[in-house]
Amino acid sequence: MGNLVDNKFTWTIKNFSSLGSEKVCSDQFVIGGCKWELLAYPKGDDKVGYLCLCLAVTESESRPCGWRRHAKFSFTLVNQHSEKLSRKTETRLWFDEEGPIWGFSDIILLTKLHERDRGFLVNRELKITVEIDVLEVIGRLDESEESEEGTTQPLKKIKKDNDGIFSSEVNGFLVLPSQAESVKRIFEKHPNMALNCRAKNQYLRTLCMNALLNLIQTMCQSLQELSIDDLSQADDTLTYLKNSGFKVDWLERKLEEVKEKKMEKEIGETRMQELEEELKGFREKYSDTEALLEDLKQKCSNTEALLKIEEAKLFAAKAPPLTLSDVL
């Protein structure tokens, strides 16, 4: 049983605990103009004792020679008790006739997966979500997606280039149908962005547009996900776009804002860590001082008791002097 929303497919495997088969397959689904399916190995595959999950391009044997799909995808093993405890694994690679199936052989230890209170298996059901971003397609898109694009977006021209890739034309740029709406929105907001684009060859123009989209995608990541290396690469991409004639001053300003926020976050986290260490030291000293004060308090109490005893002895020693009668 599966549920497809945008570029996410959620697969619910019923009676997972009692499955006797070595491999189970999901229903086929279409994301990014490509047909896919998920494979799960309940008893493990290459690594015995671990759950193995794979993503496969379907009907790979019937595809034309030389077909390829470049995709970024992630598996999320859904924790049904707490979303924060879900496990996510991601990668980016090419699917082709030599390797139509890719995945991870060590998603989770089967012993942990089957633990009652872990939250992955609830009512014997296991939920897996795959998120796919198709970055590049060589060879035809799947027919179901071609017709779907043609009916849902009639205002866009669908072209096929020499490699058999179906693309949408937006403002003189050929892009994947899945990218067309984003590119259209960019040009609506910045219509003069590519007026001075130096690339006349359609292949080079597509490279420029893909670089722009990847840059925007990078900037839209959370600060937690965004690394310093990502920002460095974003600077390089921005320079490439400017050298290609793109007017991207608006994007440069946004990138600077993202870099400043990332720097503030890095500085803030470092400062917080320093303060936490400092606070830890103060608390330890405070605890030591408390123990010392308690010891001194006890010593004061003991000394006061001894002082009272000595006072009593001294008082007794100060009795009236003996008289003659006392002596005789």
UniProtKB/TrEMBL annotation:
Any Pfam family from its record, for instance, is MATH_2
Membrane found in the keyword field: no
- Which SMART domains did the record assign? MATH
Q: Which UniProt keywords apply?
A: Coiled coil
Positions in coiled-coil regions? 258-313
Q: State whether keyword Coiled coil applies.
A: yes
Q: Which residues form the MATH domain?
A: 6-132
Name assigned to this protein: MATH domain-containing protein
According to its UniProt entry, this protein's organism is Arabis alpina (Alpine rock-cress)
